[in-house]
Amino acid sequence: MVDVKVPLVPNYAQTQPEIANIVIIGGGIMGMSTAWHLASRGVKGIVVLEQHEVGRGSSAKPMGGVRANFSDPMNVILGKRSLDTFRTWKEDFGTNIELAKVGYLFLARTEEEVANLEEATKTQNDLGVNSSMISPEQVAEVNPFIDPKAILAGSLSPDDGYACPAAAVAGYMRAAIAMGVTVMDHTEVLDIATSGGAIESVTTQRGVIRTEQIVCAAGAWSAKIGEMAGHTLPVEPVRRMIGLTTQMPQAHPTVPFTLDLSTTMYMHNYYNGMLLGISHPQEPGFNRDYSFEWLDAFNSAAKIFAPTLQNPQLDSGWAGFYENTPDRNAIIGASDRVAGFYYCTGFSGHGFLQGPAAGEFMADIIQGRESFLPHDGYSTSRFEQELNSVIEKNII
């Protein structure tokens, strides 16, 4: 099994630089992906600041889904481009992310959900994603836990799956450090100074770093960083919990990463056990304590369409944060208020799977390069007008 608690590298920087070209706040998948993409292009003077341990925030979960089966075209593009990176990860970065290409399966139990999945599947197909609508009987064939009488249809994307986020962060970090990036863990940002509407410096408990460019990749903690810089980042931390069942002598049947749109229950294999969860009621705030209170909602959902999963025997669990935005889409862009302030955050539960492409996109924006998406595609400016963007439907 992947031990996500082992130190990712032994050689964090011990002395904080006094000057930096770019300071990236946040040492998760977004911060490290951005750092690596910039460094691989020859950018020098990059400093990554992490308030806790690198890869131990929202990127610390034991396994994270990787997929391109979204309803929003830009999310499809980010997911598909990131999947291309994950498929050759071990060869390119030297860490084993344990990529399991088991597929992704969304379940529909209302006519509206069926229509939404049909529309999303067409969008995905138009953008080159291998996905299709399948019947309840076909759903039961690929996932025997599901009662076909309880659903109307499913959407299956067989090229998707899951992997280990902490191992991906480790790979990016090792490669970035090798190219001269300075990584500071246990380093908390206390203040950001501006002058004349532009970034001037960052203050941590270790001292001041003079810089003209900052990237906020702080995940659930991003709103505070935005406030320091003078640019509102509408990101709200929301606690989410999962359970890991007892490891059995023999593995369960291999099933796709399966999500039910109505109940928000989800499941996939975890070695010889199962990873189980549900998007339990919203719990804003920074409480990361784990409890079993989500099991009542999970059991109620399982009773409807996966009855054999009721009352699971759990060995362990995990609590972490979604970093939600109002429309459940990421915010990536350059501030139009504070020169030199950039942001790559607010991924609302699908950050890991978009991390490689999001970091590339962020690097393109910083360098003013033409990119695979319009630079303002994920800008916070969309929240300052009447919201025209459609909320992503293929999420829970």
TrEMBL record:
Residues 22-364 form the FAD dependent oxidoreductase domain. SUPFAM superfamilies: FAD/NAD(P)-binding domain (SSF51905). Keywords: Oxidoreductase. Pfam families: DAO. GO terms for molecular function: oxidoreductase activity. InterPro entries: FAD-dep_OxRdtase (IPR006076), FAD/NAD-bd_sf (IPR036188). GO terms for cellular component: cytoplasm. The keyword Oxidoreductase applies. PANTHER family: FAD-DEPENDENT OXIDOREDUCTASE DOMAIN-CONTAINING PROTEIN 1, SARCOSINE DEHYDROGENASE-RELATED. This is Sarcosine oxidase subunit beta. It comes from Corynebacterium stationis.
